Amino acid sequence: MKFRLTLLVCFFSLIGFAQEDSDYKKEQFVSETDTLNYRILFPKDFSETEKYPVVLVLHGAGERGDDNKSQLVHGGDLFLKDSVREQFPAIVIFPQAPKDDYWAKVEVNRDIKPFEFDFKNKVESTSSLQMVMELMDEMAQKSFVDSDRFYVGGLSMGGMGTFEIIFKKPEMFAAAFAICGGANTEIAAEYPENFNIWIFHGEQDDVVLPKYSKAMARAINHHGGNAKLSLYPEDNHNSWDSAFSEPYLLKWLFSHSQNQKK
Q1: What is the pLDDT of residues 177-191, one digit of tens each?
Q2: Residue 156 and residue 165: Cα distance in Å, rounded?
Q3: Who's near 231: CB < 8 A, 6+ residues apart?
Q4: Taking the CB of residue 185, how many other CB atoms lie within 10 A of it?
Q5: How far is CA 51 from the centre of its chain?
Q6: What is the pTM of this model?
Q7: Three-point CA angle 53, 58, 64, nearest 5°
Q8: C-beta neighbour count of 91 within 10 angstroms
Q9: Residue 251 has what DSSP assignment?
Q10: Domains in the chain, ordered, with CATH?
């Protein structure tokens, strides 16, 4: 009886997950010969006569692939919560990078741990990040999009991509969050003045050292930005669990607008 009950619980849990997962519509963005898989979540009671903010979320290296699903593993459920959808109606986009590409332009030495990173953010973007930027440009032209309220965030590889896309598209985003990422600190000089970004990292991270986030926070603030830094003393690389549980993350994110800078 207990075994049967367990199976039923698992069965209905899977049904619930499938239903929630289907709220994120599967889409593809095509540019010349390249294709970018992405999932998009529209607000409840979406109307093309309204204007909505856009949240871009960049996944980590472990979620790369071509299933157009794995990128939702971390953070996807946050935006499905009824309370979030009611309080913060927004268009949420989770693109997926293929296995052989990266969001940020960086050389990674995986032969040692923690990994070593040589950031090349100032050179041409990876094809995946370039596709994301083109997708964002297309979204900005939609009549139902509030172009003053574009937000970007990501974890690990996606945190690195977040730092880079702000450098590449400095006028697009009103605010950002970066979890356990890093970048070439020189790019912070090109960030918009007073740019708001919340940076998270686990102090025990032995994959991407917390020094990378600390250095970016210092550099951004040095160049006139507004970087918040939250460090989790007990967290390893999976600090995204703590970051996505921050009770004020979304309230803070959605409070910012390009209108504040005008």
Answers
A1: 999 999 999 999 999
A2: 14
A3: 200, 201, 202, 203, 210, 213, 214
A4: 19
A5: 21
A6: 0.91
A7: 145
A8: 21
A9: H
A10: 27-261 (3.40.50.1820)
